[in-house]
Amino acid sequence: MPHLYRLLSLLLWALLLPGQAPAQLPAPLAAAPTEAEVLRQATQLMQNRQYESAWKLLNGFDPKHRRPAVALMQTELALNYHLRSRELEGFGFVDVKPLERLDSLREHFTRAAVPYPFVVETVLKNLIRQHPTNYRLHRALADYYYQTEQCNCAEADKSPAQLYALMVRYYTTTHQHGLGDFSSYFALGYARQSLRQFAESVPAYTRAIALRPSYAPAHFQLAYSYTVLQKLPLALQEARAAARYFDDPTAKSDATYLAENLEKKIAQAGKAKKQTATKKK
Known about the structure:
Blueprint: H1 2-15, H2 35-47, H3 51-61, H4 68-81, E1 84-85, E2 90-92, H5 102-108, E3 116-117, H6 120-130, H7 135-151, H8 160-176, H9 182-194, H10 198-211, H11 216-228, H12 232-245, H13 249-280
Antiparallel strand pairs: 1-2, 2-3
Helix pairs in contact: 2-3, 2-4, 3-4, 4-6, 4-7, 6-7, 7-8, 8-9, 9-10, 9-11, 10-11, 11-12, 12-13
Protein name: Tetratricopeptide repeat protein
InterPro entries: TPR-like_helical_dom_sf, TPR_rpt
Organism: Hymenobacter yonginensis
């Protein structure tokens, strides 16, 4: 057998032209990155505030927005870390340098380019139709409607009442499948309250407070709902909590003012009750 190997080796070299070296095999192609790897890289880029680089990575991997996990990260990036937006249907991003602040850049570059189309509502609704049981998509769409109502920067064809109803719909679905947190319950309470569904807003605000007891806005809004519902002692309790937890001086002052007014109303109601009881005697 060694003789056979030696013969084959000589035959191979004999077939080569004089001075010619054996041809090198082509290098194997690099394996395409997996979705998990792309998401991990994009997360690292976002943590480093390299927002445009993160967007290019995600969009290059899934340009037609067919992958829910990638689209969810793009939605987070688009809604929270854009430099400029065109009605939340197109976005401009920037890689933030050390010592730079994104909010300051937004103020300075008010006419920055918007080169990346991404119609948030359309993308998320299409994916929900394809993946109806992916309730993270429902949560993202609910957050989109909440942010739209807050900034008044998109969905001009929808009235505020329509936006509140959409928030209720998608946050309710989200919560039914265990994906709520304090902010989603607060937003649901806000939507209910804005629709004048004050009794329905109470459980949502209460749940938000249970998940984050020091969240002052939930205490304040719950105090308002209790006031409308004429549950003044409960309203006073929540107003005092809001005043205790607010850091912003103006918000703290508003909560304190509400608490003082509730104290007066409760005192007046007690006085009126005593007078009524005295008259009956």
